[in-house]
TrEMBL record:
UniProt cross-references to SUPFAM superfamilies, sorted A to Z: Arabinanase/levansucrase/invertase, Concanavalin A-like lectins/glucanases
One Gene Ontology term of the molecular function aspect: beta-fructofuranosidase activity
Designated name of the protein: Uncharacterized protein
Gene3D superfamilies attached to this UniProt entry: Exo-inulinase, domain 1 (2.60.120.560), Glycosyl hydrolase domain, family 43 (2.115.10.20)
Amino acid sequence: MEILAVFLVGLCCVLQSNGIEVEASENNGCQNFQPHTFMLQEKQSYRTSFHFQPPRNWLNDPNGPMWYKGVYHLFYQYNPYGALFGDFMIWAHSVSYDLINWIHLNHALCPTEPYDINSCWSGSATILPGKGPVILYTGIDANHCQVQNMAMPKNLSDPFLEEWIKFAQNPIMTPPDGVEGNNFRDPTTAWLSHDGKWSVIIGSWNNNQGMAILYRSEDFFNWTKYQDPLYSTERTGMWECPDFYPVSVNSTDGVDTSILNAGVKHVMKASFNSHDYYMIGTYVPEMEKYIPDNDFTGTGMDLRYDHGKFYASKTFFDSVKNRRILWGWVNESDSIEDDMDKGWSGLQSIPRHIWLDRGGKQLVQWPIEEINKLHGKKVSFLDKKIDSESIFEVQGITAAQADVEVVFELPELQEAEFLNLTAVDPQLLCSDANASIKGRLGPFGLLTLATKDLTEQTAIFFRIFKGLKGHVVLMCSDQSRSALRDEVDKTTYGAFIDIDPQRENISLRSLIDHSIIESFGGEGRACITNRVYPKLAIHEEAHLFIFNNGTLSVTISSLNAWSMNKAQINHKENFI
């Protein structure tokens, strides 16, 4: 379909925004093009029931999540013309009262002006105290250069924020000297620093270094590049979708992005090499310097939000419930032809509450409590011994659409086999020792989206080893038998979990939703997200099993499993 881009000519207004008089374009241009319309099949095997996705077409990065006037907002990268990434990307917009049930609104930002005519790419929202939200986003300009732009709500009294107006003086930041025009994108949520100035970082790559370029402003409209990046490293690629925020050192509560005191550490996150990596460290605002506790190493031992399919994530501070919430884009693992046949591509993860672990070494993630509103029929049991090479089915729930929590006890922990952790990559270890390879303590865990005869199955499991300094807990997700289809990705994922099984039991929670499985090991210390496409284990033909393929027995201390009801994700009549 031909893409229609309409420039606004002579339409300007004076916007009294955030207490400052600024000129702005009168409309965002999204009403000026016609959508590519078609009907999806009524029942699709891989379409989810409680994960966020638009009615059709391509979705990728979450953008600008926030809470405003009683409403949660999620913007996201969207191609209104088809199920593949396109050259006319926009900001779609949905709202919710509980982060689970959503209403799709008209699009927020579309390419209309020379500074974003070739796409409106990712960015963030910042709530200016007492004044309202502002969006910073990357525009692909007429020269295909990445520049940073600003937009503001037309009506601050509208809790849905349905209309957005672009700043007439855009772009407000352009690639600095030495930075190529295609390596300058994805502004973060801004923070108010110790000297009363605003700060924001932009992801970049320069002089063979991935980096967070720092800009500062007194009024949020005029920005000056700081002399040095807030952080840079030679051990990564180009930094996409950076995020920078404080976390409390002694509480699971979240804190506002501008909080600066001795009670917080700062998280620096960057997306590169198909994963979201992060560091925990100290921000020194007087020097505009970030000092990580542990630098990126460029190895599989770097800290990640998720060890599976999870990218381009964004957090925001939920001031209503005093928590920080994490969103991530979960892309498809089937073929381009499959996506075109489905008519859609991409999901958002379940929103996750995120906080600093008690030890201060890593972050912990857990599905937001609101997901429990979708719990339906429940099955549970206690103290069940699982002998070597045994398997049993968890019956009585909808296995293709479920929430499962299981806690394992290890009565024969002293018999675990030895593992030297030196230079061991957990993903390779899981690939070499998949769910069918017997060990002593493990593999044990769940077989999800499985056929009755186990021809298809996705295994999420643990192995326990003895290390040089105590026990080692390995969490794996084995997709090698996930589908009787050859054209889908069947990568096996793995992660070590920093827990001592002598002091606490091994827990696993998996959210299963037709073609996505989000798993949280060790009460959220390790997360693995899968996209799977079984040919047979779909709808009522999907089954859920507990298994133990180790030579030693384990005990299920407790198991709780629920059928999940469908989330209400609707759209207005004029959603395109």
